[in-house]
Write a sequence for this structure.
């Protein structure tokens, strides 16, 4: 099968072995996949991953013991948990110490013609969600995770960063009715939010420490420090940024001002699917360019350019 493979260097392979599903798994033919910031960081050494990267996708089930799934369009949760440890039994399966993570940790991902996933990880899609919209379900679920972690209603909230995840987080947080501001550096990106009636700024000039919650979606080492400059004492900072090269930040300010830091990773697929199906979130303006998988190396180069939104691979 065709695949993008990373082993210290990203390469296109035309004859990579097709995976064989284990018991309880499905073989899925990938239709479209999205390149995200984590994929770009993997090529810089993040998580020490080797293999096929990629975790945002839509595909069609081709082989499965449950024949009712064959031919159905699916997306998949990316954490593969054991189901028997205390974390899984306690309901924290995404933090299973025995887990693998699709395209990120010890599990080949979706930048290939085929991928295998446990049936329990799969979600069927309604016809009202298009193929391209479906690619956004995994990162959109990550945005909905914030609502599971922090109370936002009636709070003054700032999303820092107008990249792919920042634009999704802003749309999701706006659904709560919070007093939302998004700070970014790209007028063309911020216009996506402005067109939905959301407040934006192109810098933090003139802002004091006035936000109850600041959400770092910058994708840079500076994101936490930017959040510390605008969040109130006893406020909450939600970190969405993961980078291969970790920077330094001021622990003293966190202690003195009693700031709560909340790490936020994967989230619930159900609310993300529902929001897309009901058109309460619009992801199509985020689609930048679609490349055939054979041009995957060029796609990565394009995705890494400043100002680029969602780059996709077509299979």
């Amino acid at each position: 099968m065709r695949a993008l493979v990373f082993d210290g260097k990203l390469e296109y392979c035309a004859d990579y072995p097709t995976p064989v599903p284990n018991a309880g798994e499905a073989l899925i033919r990938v239709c479209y996949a999205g390149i995200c910031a984590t994929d770009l960081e993997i090529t810089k050494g993040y998580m020490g991953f080797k293999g096929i990267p990629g975790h945002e996708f839509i595909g069609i089930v081709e082989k499965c013991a449950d024949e009712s799934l064959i031919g159905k369009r699916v997306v998949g949760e990316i954490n593969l948990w054991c189901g028997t440890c205390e974390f899984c039994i306690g309901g924290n399966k995404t933090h299973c110490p025995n887990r693998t993570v699709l395209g990120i940790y010890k599990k080949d991902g979706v930048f290939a013609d085929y991928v295998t996933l446990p049936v329990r990880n799969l979600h069927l899609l309604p016809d009202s969600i298009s193929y391209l919209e479906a690619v956004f379900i995994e990162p959109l679920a990550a945005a909905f995770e914030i609502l599971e972690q922090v109370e936002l209603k009636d709070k003054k909230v700032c999303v820092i960063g107008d990249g792919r995840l920042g634009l999704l987080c802003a749309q999701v947080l706006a659904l709560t009715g919070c007093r939302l501001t998004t700070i970014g550096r790209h007028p063309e990106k911020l216009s996506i939010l402005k067109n939905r009636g959301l407040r934006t700024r192109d810098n933090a000039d003139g802002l004091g420490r006035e936000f109850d919650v600041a959400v770092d979606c910058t994708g840079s080492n500076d994101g936490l420090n930017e959040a510390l400059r605008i969040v109130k004492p006893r406020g909450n900072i939600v970190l969405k940024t993961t980078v291969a090269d970790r920077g330094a930040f001021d622990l003293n300010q966190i202690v003195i001002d009693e700031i709560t830091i909340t790490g936020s990773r994967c989230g619930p697929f159900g609310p993300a699917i529902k929001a897309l199906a009901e058109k309460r979130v619009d992801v199509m303006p985020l689609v930048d360019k679609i490349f055939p998988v054979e041009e995957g190396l060029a796609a990565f180069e394009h995705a890494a350019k400043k100002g680029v939104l969602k780059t996709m691979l077509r299979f």
